Input
Amino acid sequence: MTFIERKMVYSVDIYDKTGKVTSKFDLNPEIFSDEKVNPSLIHEYLLLQEANARTVIASTKTRGEVSWSWRKLYKQKGTGNARVGDRNSPIRRHGWVAFWPSSEKVFEKAMTKKARKVALNGLLTLKVKEGIVSGLDIDTMKPSTKDALTLLAKIGDEGKKVLLVLDKKEDGIVKSFRNIEGLKYLLVDYLNPRDLMNADAVVFLKPALEFVNQN
Output
Protein backbone atom coordinates (compact mmCIF):
# COMPACT_ATOMS: atom_id res chain seq x y z
CA MET A 1 0.00 0.00 0.00
CA THR A 2 1.34 3.41 -0.93
CA PHE A 3 0.79 6.39 1.34
CA ILE A 4 0.72 9.84 -0.23
CA GLU A 5 1.94 12.54 2.10
CA ARG A 6 -0.36 15.56 2.10
CA LYS A 7 0.95 18.94 3.12
CA MET A 8 -1.00 20.98 5.63
CA VAL A 9 -2.87 23.82 3.96
CA TYR A 10 -3.26 27.05 5.90
CA SER A 11 -6.28 29.22 5.23
CA VAL A 12 -7.29 32.82 5.89
CA ASP A 13 -10.77 34.19 6.61
CA ILE A 14 -12.09 36.59 3.98
CA TYR A 15 -14.46 39.32 5.21
CA ASP A 16 -16.84 41.55 3.25
CA LYS A 17 -17.69 45.22 3.88
CA THR A 18 -20.10 44.28 6.65
CA GLY A 19 -17.47 42.35 8.57
CA LYS A 20 -18.94 38.91 7.84
CA VAL A 21 -16.81 35.93 6.81
CA THR A 22 -17.72 35.13 3.22
CA SER A 23 -15.11 32.51 2.38
CA LYS A 24 -11.86 30.79 3.28
CA PHE A 25 -8.76 31.53 1.24
CA ASP A 26 -6.40 28.56 1.00
CA LEU A 27 -2.72 29.44 0.92
CA ASN A 28 -0.37 27.68 -1.46
CA PRO A 29 1.28 24.85 0.55
CA GLU A 30 4.34 25.06 -1.71
CA ILE A 31 4.94 28.59 -0.43
CA PHE A 32 3.38 28.71 3.03
CA SER A 33 4.38 25.64 5.01
CA ASP A 34 6.26 24.81 8.20
CA GLU A 35 9.11 23.35 6.16
CA LYS A 36 9.67 26.71 4.49
CA VAL A 37 10.02 28.64 7.75
CA ASN A 38 13.68 29.54 8.29
CA PRO A 39 14.21 31.68 11.45
CA SER A 40 17.84 32.38 10.56
CA LEU A 41 16.85 33.69 7.13
CA ILE A 42 14.09 35.84 8.64
CA HIS A 43 16.58 37.30 11.12
CA GLU A 44 19.06 37.98 8.33
CA TYR A 45 16.41 39.79 6.28
CA LEU A 46 15.45 41.94 9.27
CA LEU A 47 19.10 42.85 9.90
CA LEU A 48 19.45 43.75 6.22
CA GLN A 49 16.45 46.06 6.38
CA GLU A 50 17.69 47.77 9.54
CA ALA A 51 21.24 48.13 8.21
CA ASN A 52 20.17 49.52 4.84
CA ALA A 53 17.97 52.10 6.55
CA ARG A 54 20.78 53.23 8.85
CA THR A 55 22.04 56.79 8.46
CA VAL A 56 25.61 57.64 9.44
CA ILE A 57 25.52 60.68 11.73
CA ALA A 58 28.81 60.30 13.63
CA SER A 59 31.74 61.90 11.80
CA THR A 60 35.01 63.35 13.08
CA LYS A 61 38.03 64.99 11.47
CA THR A 62 40.95 62.89 10.35
CA ARG A 63 44.63 63.87 10.55
CA GLY A 64 44.45 65.50 7.13
CA GLU A 65 41.32 67.54 7.90
CA VAL A 66 42.33 69.52 11.00
CA SER A 67 43.53 73.06 10.28
CA TRP A 68 46.23 73.63 12.91
CA SER A 69 49.89 74.14 12.11
CA TRP A 70 52.12 71.08 11.74
CA ARG A 71 54.99 72.84 13.54
CA LYS A 72 56.38 71.10 16.62
CA LEU A 73 55.14 73.02 19.68
CA TYR A 74 58.23 72.67 21.87
CA LYS A 75 61.76 71.56 21.42
CA GLN A 76 62.44 67.89 21.89
CA LYS A 77 64.48 68.19 25.09
CA GLY A 78 65.20 70.62 27.92
CA THR A 79 61.65 71.64 28.92
CA GLY A 80 61.33 69.13 31.74
CA ASN A 81 58.03 67.92 30.28
CA ALA A 82 57.01 65.10 28.03
CA ARG A 83 57.96 65.43 24.38
CA VAL A 84 55.22 67.12 22.39
CA GLY A 85 54.54 66.99 18.67
CA ASP A 86 52.35 69.33 16.68
CA ARG A 87 49.02 70.78 17.75
CA ASN A 88 47.13 68.35 15.51
CA SER A 89 47.97 65.46 17.83
CA PRO A 90 44.95 63.35 18.82
CA ILE A 91 45.86 63.73 22.51
CA ARG A 92 45.41 67.50 22.35
CA ARG A 93 42.16 69.47 22.34
CA HIS A 94 40.84 70.16 18.84
CA GLY A 95 43.35 67.74 17.34
CA TRP A 96 42.43 64.94 14.98
CA VAL A 97 40.57 61.95 16.42
CA ALA A 98 42.23 58.56 16.57
CA PHE A 99 40.09 55.53 15.70
CA TRP A 100 37.46 57.93 14.42
CA PRO A 101 33.95 57.21 13.17
CA SER A 102 33.76 58.11 9.49
CA SER A 103 30.76 59.38 7.52
CA GLU A 104 31.97 57.22 4.64
CA LYS A 105 31.34 53.97 6.50
CA VAL A 106 28.86 51.73 4.69
CA PHE A 107 26.48 49.52 6.68
CA GLU A 108 24.52 48.10 3.74
CA LYS A 109 24.03 44.35 3.51
CA ALA A 110 23.16 42.18 0.54
CA MET A 111 20.73 39.29 0.19
CA THR A 112 19.45 37.51 -2.89
CA LYS A 113 15.90 38.15 -4.07
CA LYS A 114 15.04 34.47 -3.67
CA ALA A 115 16.30 34.39 -0.07
CA ARG A 116 14.32 37.53 0.80
CA LYS A 117 11.18 35.99 -0.65
CA VAL A 118 11.62 32.74 1.29
CA ALA A 119 12.21 34.71 4.50
CA LEU A 120 9.12 36.87 3.94
CA ASN A 121 6.91 33.88 3.15
CA GLY A 122 8.21 32.11 6.24
CA LEU A 123 7.35 35.10 8.40
CA LEU A 124 3.89 35.28 6.87
CA THR A 125 3.42 31.59 7.62
CA LEU A 126 4.20 32.23 11.29
CA LYS A 127 1.70 35.10 11.35
CA VAL A 128 -0.97 32.88 9.79
CA LYS A 129 -0.28 30.20 12.43
CA GLU A 130 -0.77 32.87 15.12
CA GLY A 131 -4.23 33.53 13.66
CA ILE A 132 -3.66 37.25 13.09
CA VAL A 133 -3.90 37.32 9.28
CA SER A 134 -7.19 38.03 7.55
CA GLY A 135 -8.48 39.24 4.19
CA LEU A 136 -10.94 41.86 2.97
CA ASP A 137 -12.98 41.40 -0.20
CA ILE A 138 -13.66 45.05 -1.01
CA ASP A 139 -12.82 46.82 -4.26
CA THR A 140 -13.75 50.31 -3.16
CA MET A 141 -15.52 52.15 -0.37
CA LYS A 142 -16.81 55.61 0.42
CA PRO A 143 -14.18 57.59 2.37
CA SER A 144 -15.20 57.22 6.00
CA THR A 145 -12.91 56.66 8.97
CA LYS A 146 -15.95 55.78 11.07
CA ASP A 147 -16.92 52.96 8.69
CA ALA A 148 -13.33 51.70 8.65
CA LEU A 149 -13.23 51.62 12.46
CA THR A 150 -16.54 49.76 12.53
CA LEU A 151 -15.20 47.21 10.06
CA LEU A 152 -12.03 46.64 12.10
CA ALA A 153 -14.14 46.18 15.22
CA LYS A 154 -16.30 43.55 13.53
CA ILE A 155 -13.30 41.52 12.36
CA GLY A 156 -11.73 41.74 15.83
CA ASP A 157 -8.85 44.12 15.07
CA GLU A 158 -10.05 47.26 16.83
CA GLY A 159 -7.37 48.99 18.92
CA LYS A 160 -4.57 46.79 17.56
CA LYS A 161 -1.49 47.69 15.58
CA VAL A 162 -2.83 46.79 12.16
CA LEU A 163 -0.87 46.37 8.95
CA LEU A 164 -3.18 46.85 5.96
CA VAL A 165 -1.71 45.40 2.75
CA LEU A 166 -3.09 46.80 -0.52
CA ASP A 167 -2.70 45.67 -4.10
CA LYS A 168 -3.11 49.27 -5.28
CA LYS A 169 -3.96 52.67 -3.83
CA GLU A 170 -7.71 53.09 -4.02
CA ASP A 171 -8.65 56.57 -2.77
CA GLY A 172 -11.72 55.50 -0.81
CA ILE A 173 -9.92 52.73 1.06
CA VAL A 174 -6.78 54.78 1.73
CA LYS A 175 -8.74 57.80 3.00
CA SER A 176 -10.89 55.59 5.21
CA PHE A 177 -8.01 53.83 6.96
CA ARG A 178 -5.09 56.26 6.92
CA ASN A 179 -6.18 58.31 9.96
CA ILE A 180 -6.73 55.34 12.24
CA GLU A 181 -4.29 55.34 15.14
CA GLY A 182 -1.96 52.35 15.13
CA LEU A 183 -2.78 51.36 11.55
CA LYS A 184 -0.25 51.40 8.75
CA TYR A 185 -1.00 50.66 5.12
CA LEU A 186 1.39 49.72 2.35
CA LEU A 187 1.37 48.17 -1.10
CA VAL A 188 2.05 44.45 -1.29
CA ASP A 189 5.27 45.11 -3.24
CA TYR A 190 6.66 46.88 -0.15
CA LEU A 191 5.84 44.15 2.33
CA ASN A 192 8.77 43.82 4.73
CA PRO A 193 9.78 41.93 7.90
CA ARG A 194 9.92 44.95 10.22
CA ASP A 195 6.32 46.01 9.57
CA LEU A 196 5.11 42.40 9.78
CA MET A 197 6.84 41.85 13.11
CA ASN A 198 5.48 45.09 14.58
CA ALA A 199 1.88 44.29 13.62
CA ASP A 200 -0.65 42.72 15.97
CA ALA A 201 -2.93 42.05 12.99
CA VAL A 202 -2.24 41.78 9.27
CA VAL A 203 -5.14 42.51 6.92
CA PHE A 204 -4.79 41.86 3.19
CA LEU A 205 -7.09 43.06 0.48
CA LYS A 206 -8.02 39.91 -1.43
CA PRO A 207 -6.06 40.81 -4.61
CA ALA A 208 -2.95 41.44 -2.49
CA LEU A 209 -3.42 38.04 -0.84
CA GLU A 210 -3.73 36.43 -4.26
CA PHE A 211 -0.50 38.14 -5.28
CA VAL A 212 1.59 36.74 -2.40
CA ASN A 213 -0.02 33.34 -2.89
CA GLN A 214 1.46 32.95 -6.37
CA ASN A 215 4.93 34.47 -5.93
In short: The mean pLDDT is 88.
